[in-house]
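Lab notes, practical 5.
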Amino acid sequence: MIRNIVFSTLLVLGALLFGGRAEAQQIPEGPFQSVQGLVQAWQQFDPAGAGYVYVDGSLVFQRYGFGPAATGYYFVCPQDALIKLSCPAEGPFRSAQEIIDYWRQADPWGATYLYLNGQLIEQRMGFGPANTQYYVTCNNRPGGGFMTNCSL
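Output from the prediction step:
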């Protein structure tokens, strides 16, 4: 009986000590030059915590450990070939409004046409040649989101 109480108490203390470690720290943001550099950063990040790292939908690092697993979904961005949590223009975006907000900030004076899954979500008149971007829903990718190309 006492043995069960002591064991239960130790489990609770362990959960309190290690339970929020991965969530409390910010995951490595990058940018990273290579997958190897990303993996090295994750090897140093919360060494006692569990973690999963994906690059373009493929698992590149897995570690078992204490607490809830920290997970990073990274992409090789076409514009600079660096590995980042998100590529500025390509995504992933979590909502149509995020796409619109990004382009309003990135090109505030230019004519812009934004499409999501074939539907026009933003049409803005402006200066210069029109910037037209097509986004699709990427349900097949870990982390999901809207991107210009789900196979980036």
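Observations recorded by the TA: Residues 3-23 have pLDDT under 50 and may be disordered. The chain has two domains: 1-85, 88-152.
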